[in-house]
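Sample entry (150 residues):
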Amino acid sequence: MEPAVPVSSYRTRANSTTTSRPCQTCPGVVEPAWRALGCYQGFGAHLVPEIAILRALGARRATVFSAIILESASIAGLGMIAGYVLYIVIMVVAARIIRAQTGVVLDPFKFNPVMLWAPLAFVALGAAAGIVPAIKAYATDVAEHLTPIS
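Predicted structure, serialized as C-alpha cells:
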C-alpha cells in the first residue's frame, strides 16, 4: 500500500526552514514588553503618600526599599502556593481519569527537582520585579508628597 504523500516530500518539508521578517516578529516581542514597562509607570503611585509618611516618621530609605522588595516576593510566593494547589487538584483529577480510561497509573506526588527550583526562581523573579518600584520609593521626596493637595 502506497502512502498518499511521498516520503521524499516529508523530508523536504522537515529540512526547509521558514524565515520571518523582523516586522512580523516585532509585535510579538515589543508590544508585551511595552505593556510591561507601562505597568511600572503607574505602579506604586497610590503608595507615594504612605511612603512619604513612613519616611517622615523616621523609616530609613533602605527599610522602605526592602519592604517593597519583600512585598513583591511575598506576592510571588502566594502565587507559587496557589499554583501548587492548582497543580495538585488538576493532576489528581487527571490521574484518576487516565487510570480509569487507560489503566496507566500516574503519581502526581513523585518528586522532580523542577518542582523545587522553578518556584524558587519565580519568587526571585517576583522580587526582581519589585526593584523598579522600590527604586522609585527610595527616591520619593518626603516634603513634596506631604503637602496638602487641597
